[in-house]
């Protein structure tokens, strides 16, 4: 599997939102480096292909039904991971959603849903992971997936941008709180990669105009985040916590 690096062998990683897009990619990156994977998503049936693909390449993974907004569901996912592999010592809080459109027209229920998944869900996921890592005295790694929209203005993305800014600062505070407890927590701010969430938008004329405004006038390749994810979840990042790592090909410049 992968490039021969096995620096995550022996680690157990839980990835939320793993059924597609970035979450599935992150899971493959960690599995290729030797981690055993707990794949979390609301629809467990969608995880089967990824689980089988990882197994086919010599890795180990289980799929678990996981609603990140529900604390009991989050705990159950960690329980399943512990039963299968032992203590989860690596977490990627990736599950997220978006509601586009003018803020003046945004239904408040939609706003609340974005905040529930993107902020409450991240908090519940990383808190439960940290509790267990600390109890097990594990060398913990937690990675929160934020966005370049957390720090730059993106018209029509008020709820999404606010949620990503919230988890960026949440992550920095938690990193400080847990710095002396054996848990490294960092925040990844990706630029735009074509995924299920944005493919339709970037196929429109307005989407093309957005790309044209970026210095390099392109979306990032699917593997653009691989190196950062592997580093922040691996042993080489032992002195890195509370960092906000932007990988965006200059899109936010």
From TrEMBL:
Keywords: Oxidoreductase. Residues 11-196 form the Ketoreductase domain. Coiled coil: none annotated. InterPro entries: KR_dom (IPR057326), NAD(P)-bd_dom_sf (IPR036291), Sc_DH/Rdtase_CS (IPR020904), SDR_fam (IPR002347). It holds the Pfam family adh_short. Transmembrane segments: none annotated. Signal peptide: none annotated. SUPFAM superfamilies: NAD(P)-binding Rossmann-fold domains. It comes from the Bacteria. One of its GO terms (molecular function) is oxidoreductase activity. Belongs to the short-chain dehydrogenases/reductases (SDR) family. This is NAD(P)-dependent dehydrogenase (Short-subunit alcohol dehydrogenase family). The lineage of its organism: Bacteria, Pseudomonadati, Pseudomonadota, Alphaproteobacteria, Sphingomonadales.
